[in-house]
Amino acid sequence: MNDFETINYNAENRVATISLNRPKTMNAISKVMRKELKQVITTIEANDNIRIVVIRAEGKGFSSGTDLSEGLAGFNDFEEQIHQEYKPILMAIAESKKPYIASINGACAGIGAALAMSCDLAIMSDDSFLYLAFAGLSLVPDGGMAHHLVTAMGYKKAYQTFIEAGRITADDCLQYGFINKVVEASVLYEETQRWAKTLSEGAPLAQRYGKQIMRKVHTSSIEETINLEANLQVDCSTSEDCQNAISSFFKKQKPTFIGK
Fold first, then answer.
1. How far is CA 5 from CA 33, 35, 97, in A?
2. pTM of the predicted model, to two decimals?
3. pLDDT digits (tens, 9 = 90+) for 146-205
4. How many CB atoms lie within 10 A of CB 146?
5. 11 in helix, strand or coil?
6. CA distance 61 to 18
7. 173 and 234 share one domain
8. Nearest-CA neighbor of 101 among 205, 16, 172?
9. Distance (Å, rounded) from C-alpha 78 to C-alpha 227?
10. Phi then psi for 124, rounded to 5 degrees?
């Protein structure tokens, strides 16, 4: 199933896979790609049969960042472009009720790295890297990349890596906590799909509300976190899934989750 110009899309076994598909430009994110990403994410969010979303890329690299050959692509400035095209995509991922997995191959640069880091989980091939190209072009981080850098690395190391236009290897990404797994490049796709399928068999309500809670931790007090946990625990504990899972636990059976 693919009606797009710059991305490939398919959904199977409760897993949706979005593949950036401009390999000749190292998947530079064009105006059309931004439009199609927003469109497909909206479609996925409305489909209750999809539980896990994978974002990956065709070709030798995940993304070289914004397609600079397009200039401002019809906008007055980059601020306008980011607010109208990039931010809706990044926030849709952050606020989605579904877990997103970034599957990163090769170079992952600029706002392409911000797209990957906006996902809830990430897996990288052992030869891939994040490339902070911004300062080398006299630009600041965008797409929330500064947030991800400082959260993972701390201010001093994050700022150093930014101003030196540094590269962060897959092993270092794992060490800092940017990603969850590193695998050999030859098995990245298979390992990503295997992981996604396993997660798709989990409890959708727990995944949804756990994401909601943890996404707010850095901007909430401990009291606010306790209150939100307590509130959402009511929805979880009274669900069919929870009751069936408890019953299965005592029967020593594997539970089946329906998301209700």
1. 8, 10, 27
2. 0.95
3. 999 999 999 999 999 999 999 999 999 999 999 999 999 999 999 999 999 999 999 999
4. 17
5. strand
6. 15
7. no
8. 16
9. 39
10. -125, 150
Burial of 130 (0-12, 13-18, 19+ CB in 10 A): buried
Domain count along the chain:
2
257 part of a folded domain = no
Domain extent for 219: 204-251
Can you tell me the distance from the alpha carbon of 254 to that of 149, in angstroms, rounded to the nearest whole number?
39
Same domain (yes/no): 188, 214? no
Q: Name, in order, each residue with C-beta under 8 angstroms of 245's C-beta and a sequence gap of 6 or more.
A: 203, 255, 257
Residue type present at position 71: G
Cα atoms in the Cβ-side hemisphere of radius 13 Å centred on 142 = 21
Whether residue 228 is found in the same domain as residue 138: no
**Alpha-carbon distance values, 245 to 62, 199, 208, 241, 250 (Å):** 38, 16, 17, 6, 9
What is the Cα 1 distance to its own chain's centre?
21
Residue 157: how many CB atoms within 10 A of its CB?
A: 14
Q: Is 92 helix (H, G, I), strand (E, B) or coil?
A: helix
